[in-house]
């Protein structure tokens, strides 16, 4: 009785195998992405310099505990309002405790948002402690002003 039951289970298992039919394959059109990668040499120097300088100045303030406020010609009003000494100080304390001293940033890629015509510069942040990886995103709008600054921890990839 057991053998018959096992044979029926195996027959059922093999009979459920799906078969592909080439005549029923449909072409799936992927929607156009709202952003795409841009080569660094295709971006204006003023925008590259602005993103690098603002990002580095912000992260270096964690080492020195001195924050030079952003001017309205460098950043939008929203960024200026959110980048207070108190907020930056609390964020720096958390990051310094976990990552150590800030050493530098290196450009990973630049993405253009087609809808808003903004450039997002993504940097790898180099810290003293190499246990946790962090990235910095600096967004530059069409007026050459920083419209967003964000740092995030990148989760470790499993082996």
Q: How would you sum up this structure, described in words?
A:
By secondary structure, the chain is an alpha+beta fold. Helix content is 35%, strand content 27%. It is built from four helices and five strands; from the N terminus they run αβαααββββ. The chain has a five-stranded antiparallel β-sheet. β2 (102-113) and β3 form a beta hairpin. The radius of gyration is 25 Å and the shape is globular.
Any key phrases for this structure?
159 residues, 4 helices, five-stranded antiparallel beta sheet, 27% strand, alpha+beta, 35% helix
Could you give the count of β-strands?
5
Name the helix and strand elements from N-terminus to C-terminus, one letter apiece: HEHHHEEEE
Largest beta-sheet details:
5 strands, antiparallel
The helicity comes to: 25-40%
Can you summarize this structure?
The protein has 159 residues and is of the alpha+beta class. The chain has helices at residues 2-15, 45-64, 77-82, 85-99; strands at residues 35-38, 102-113, 118-127, 133-140, 146-154.
List strands and helices in order, with pairings.
Blueprint: H1 2-15, E1 35-38, H2 45-64, H3 77-82, H4 85-99, E2 102-113, E3 118-127, E4 133-140, E5 146-154
Antiparallel strand pairs: 1-2, 2-3, 3-4, 4-5
Helix pairs in contact: 2-4
